[in-house]
């Protein structure tokens, strides 16, 4: 039976550690500040943004949300980002994704100053992370998965990590982090056009799934002892749940838990780590600004 990798508990420990760092910065006259830009009224995005600013405030950081209408123009959004780029009390800026279809998300992300890009989505940070430069802001979900593996003593050296999904914000940066000197994993990336997906997933010592499709990975697709990291966030209608839905990941948790050696739950696995690493990146941004 797999042990459960508890992202909520790891986050609790990490946030307590970071609260001390925030207090030290404050004593030196700097209060780390994060500004989150939310466009429109997507309920999931509203919830994630609220969690981010709440988490900042709980640590003694400044957390601010700027909500813009669904039909905001690119120019108006750029003007908001310009203002935040120029504001010295704002150390980190992020634009919550997904954006409405009329907004060119790559251009929007590139408009954030790389020194304030705490999501790590700007090409400058993607490039720095790719070459292993410590000044890079590493995207929060991949950084959270690496931190979770490290804190849970899950070795990666010499292991075959199979990633399902090829996104810019999770899978590509994660592959680069895992194959770097130190983690030293052998990485395979698969995606929707990979033929016979199961023939790859069955080879995985560590299987990371980031697709957004409930039950994509079933028990027959994994080998005994595998470590499973489920990045999926899928809402499933459930009239008996308090919110009328419950969250599930991309893997069939109940069927795979008896076979695996370790597995992340949804909720309470990778999700909380994403927000914790955003706090860490905001702290890093404030420290780097202080040093300039
Ligand atoms: N600008 C960004 N946009 C998005 C990112 C991101 O990193 N930067 N990632 C996702 C959404 N996301 C953060 O923004 C995120 C998703 C889920 C969770 C989380 O903690 N989920 C909970 C369950 C939530 C629930 O019950 O409703 C969990 O897994 O325990 C945190 C952050 C896309 N957009």
Automatic annotation (TrEMBL):
Residues that coordinate or bind NADP(+): 165-167
Domain Tetrahydrofolate dehydrogenase/cyclohydrolase NAD(P)-binding: 139-289
CDD domains for the chain: NAD_bind_m-THF_DH_Cyclohyd
Family stated for the protein in its record: Belongs to the tetrahydrofolate dehydrogenase/cyclohydrolase family.
Record note on quaternary structure: Homodimer.
InterPro entries (UniProt xref): Aminoacid_DH-like_N_sf, NAD(P)-bd_dom_sf, THF_DH/CycHdrlase, THF_DH/CycHdrlase_cat_dom, THF_DH/CycHdrlase_CS, THF_DH/CycHdrlase_NAD-bd_dom
Pfam families: THF_DHG_CYH, THF_DHG_CYH_C
GN (gene name): folD
Alphabetically ordered keywords of this record: Amino-acid biosynthesis, Histidine biosynthesis, Hydrolase, Methionine biosynthesis, Multifunctional enzyme, NADP, One-carbon metabolism, Oxidoreductase, Purine biosynthesis
Catalytic activity: (6R)-5,10-methenyltetrahydrofolate + H2O = (6R)-10-formyltetrahydrofolate + H(+); (6R)-5,10-methylene-5,6,7,8-tetrahydrofolate + NADP(+) = (6R)-5,10-methenyltetrahydrofolate + NADPH
Keyword Secreted on entry: no
Pathway stated in the Swiss-Prot or TrEMBL entry: One-carbon metabolism; tetrahydrofolate interconversion
Matches recorded under SUPFAM superfamilies: Aminoacid dehydrogenase-like, N-terminal domain, NAD(P)-binding Rossmann-fold domains
Name listed for the protein in its UniProt record: Bifunctional protein FolD
Record-listed E.C. numbers: 1.5.1.5, 3.5.4.9
Organism: Myxococcus virescens
Tetrahydrofolate dehydrogenase/cyclohydrolase catalytic domain mapped to chain residues: 5-119
Main function: Catalyzes the oxidation of 5,10-methylenetetrahydrofolate to 5,10-methenyltetrahydrofolate and then the hydrolysis of 5,10-methenyltetrahydrofolate to 10-formyltetrahydrofolate.
HAMAP family reported for this sequence: THF_DHG_CYH
């Amino acid at each position: 039976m797999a042990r459960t990798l508890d992202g909520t508990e790891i986050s609790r420990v990490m946030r307590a550690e970071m609260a001390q760092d925030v207090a030290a910065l404050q004593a030196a006259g700097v209060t780390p500040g994060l500004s989150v830009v939310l466009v429109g009224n997507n309920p999931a995005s509203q919830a994630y943004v609220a969690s981010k600013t709440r988490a900042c405030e709980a640590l003694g950081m400044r957390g601010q949300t700027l909500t813009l209408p669904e039909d905001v123009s690119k120019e108006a959004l750029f003007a908001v980002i310009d203002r935040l780029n120029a504001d010295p009390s704002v150390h980190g800026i992020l634009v919550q994704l997904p954006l409405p279809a009329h907004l060119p998300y790559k251009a929007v992300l590139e408009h954030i100053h790389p020194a304030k890009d705490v999501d790590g989505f700007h090409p400058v940070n993607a490039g720095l992370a790719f070459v292993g430069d410590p000044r890079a802001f590493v995207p929060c979900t991949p950084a959270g998965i690496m931190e979770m593996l490290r804190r849970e003593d899950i070795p990666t050296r010499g292991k075959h990590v199979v990633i399902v999904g090829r996104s810019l914000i999770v899978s590509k940066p994660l592959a680069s982090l895992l194959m770097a000197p130190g983690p030293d994993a052998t990485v395979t990336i698969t995606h929707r056009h990979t033929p016979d997906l199961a023939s790859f997933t069955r080879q995985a010592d560590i299987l990371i799934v980031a697709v957004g499709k409930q039950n994509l990975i079933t028990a027959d697709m994994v080998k005994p002892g595998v470590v499973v990291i489920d990045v999926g966030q899928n809402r499933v209608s459930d009239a008996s749940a308090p919110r009328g839905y419950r969250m599930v990941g991309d893997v069939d948790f109940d069927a795979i838990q008896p076979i695996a050696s370790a597995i992340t739950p949804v909720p309470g696995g990778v999700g909380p780590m994403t927000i914790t690493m955003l706090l860490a990146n905001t702290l890093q941004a404030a420290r780097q600004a202080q040093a300039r």
